[in-house]
């Protein structure tokens, strides 16, 4: 049976609630599903509770962006203890800066003659984490844009006129926080789209991330071609890393990506799970007692990038 180890809910920038995501996973015939919301674990209790008594195995996860040479990369944490204080502290710091960034984006939009307020954006988010898709929804509701993709292309994309970069942790800090929570750190979507595979660039990235302590590479991903997936798997093996995979499902936020199958061809095998679980177990055993775990270092500023956040 297939699994999906990279999905999002309304707790960050998806459009399905955690229980709705569970129901969709059951309907899709998946045997395991990980909820990996951006910079938050707020949806995990409802996700795990909803999966109880179903044939679906719920895996606690999170997606954390990290600064990388003026841009950013994303790390997915799987099998985490979502109540671990060190991880919660890091995520709270990231969200705190996100709040500052979001208000600055409202100011940018207003400066462009777009009369949207922060309260309107918050209304779209409800009680969940405010992210760029909520800005897009507010612009659509205002009638300024016809669709959410138009809002991104005109204003909100990384190179858009209303985009504001935010502070992000260094990769080694994000990996350490995931490990402290007893999870495995996965380099997310290292390649994508229809670009030709650049093996040398990928090897360099994975080599540097292996030095930061990552456990796995997301080799199977909605926007990876078959050639890219093979290359990613070969590079992961060369550095002794496990494989992971997922759709990066967001619901209506990223139309065309279906749960479990991505753009239609994705199939992440259950065979990925044992090695990921074994590595998570080793991290849990290796954790020091709480009294000797020191504070996390300061974050760094990033130019952004990656998926909508």
Give your account of this protein's structure.
There is one protein chain. By secondary structure, this protein is of the alpha/beta class. The protein is built from ten helices and ten strands. The strands form two sheets. Strands 8-7-6-4-3-2-1-9 form an eight-stranded mixed β-sheet. Strands 5-10 form a two-stranded antiparallel sheet.
- What is the first-to-last residue Cα distance? 31 Å
Number of strands: 10
Average pLDDT figure: 90
Largest sheet: 8 strands, mixed
What is the percent of helical residues? 25-40%
* Main sheet strand line-up: 8-7-6-4-3-2-1-9
What are the low-pLDDT stretches, counting only 5+ consecutive residues below 50?
292-307
Give the class from helix and strand content and strand pairing.
alpha/beta
Counting DSSP H or I runs of 4 or more residues, the number of helices is 10
**Beta-strand percentage range:** 15-25%
CA radius of gyration is: 19 Å
Tertiary shape: globular
Order of helices and strands: EHEHEEHHHHEHEHEHEEHE
Summarize the structure.
This protein has helices at 18-27, 44-51, 85-111, 118-125, 132-142, 148-156, 171-180, 199-211, 226-238, 273-286, and strands at 2-7, 32-35, 57-68, 71-78, 167-168, 184-187, 216-221, 242-246, 268-269, 300-301. Helices cover 40% and strands 17% of the residues.
């Amino acid at each position: 049976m297939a699994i999906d180890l990279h999905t999002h809910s309304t707790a960050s920038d998806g459009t399905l609630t955690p229980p709705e995501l569970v129901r969709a996973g059951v309907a899709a015939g998946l045997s395991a599903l990980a909820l990996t919301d951006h910079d938050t674990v707020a949806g995990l209790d409802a996700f795990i509770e909803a999966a109880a008594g179903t044939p679906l195995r719920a895996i606690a996860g999170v997606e954390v962006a990290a600064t990388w040479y003026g841009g950013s990369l994303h790390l997915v944490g799987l099998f985490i203890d979502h109540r671990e204080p060190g991880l919660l502290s890091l995520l709270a710091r990231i969200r705190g800066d996100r709040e500052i960034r979001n208000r600055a984006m409202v100011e940018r939009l207003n400066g462009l003659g777009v009369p949207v307020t922060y309260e309107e954006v918050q209304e779209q988010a409800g009680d969940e984490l405010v992210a760029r898709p909520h800005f897009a929804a507010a612009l659509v509701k205002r009638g300024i844009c016809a669709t959410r993709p138009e809002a991104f292309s005109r204003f909100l994309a990384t190179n858009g006129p209303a985009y504001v970069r935010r502070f992000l942790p260094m990769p080694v800090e994000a990996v350490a926080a995931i490990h402290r929570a007893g999870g495995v750190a996965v380099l997310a979507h290292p390649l994508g789209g229809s670009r030709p595979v650049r093996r040398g660039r990928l090897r360099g990235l994975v080599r540097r991330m292996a030095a930061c302590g990552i456990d796995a590479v997301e080799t199977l991903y909605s926007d990876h071609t078959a050639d890219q997936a093979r290359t990613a798997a070969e590079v992961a093996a060369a550095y002794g890393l496990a494989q992971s995979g997922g759709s990066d499902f967001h619901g209506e936020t990223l139309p065309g990506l279906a749960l479990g199958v991505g753009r239609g061809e994705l199939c992440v095998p259950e065979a990925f799970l044992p090695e990921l679980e074994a590595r998570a177990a080793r991290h849990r055993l290796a954790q020091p007692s709480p009294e000797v775990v020191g504070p996390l270092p300061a974050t760094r500023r990033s130019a952004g990038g990656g998926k909508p956040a």
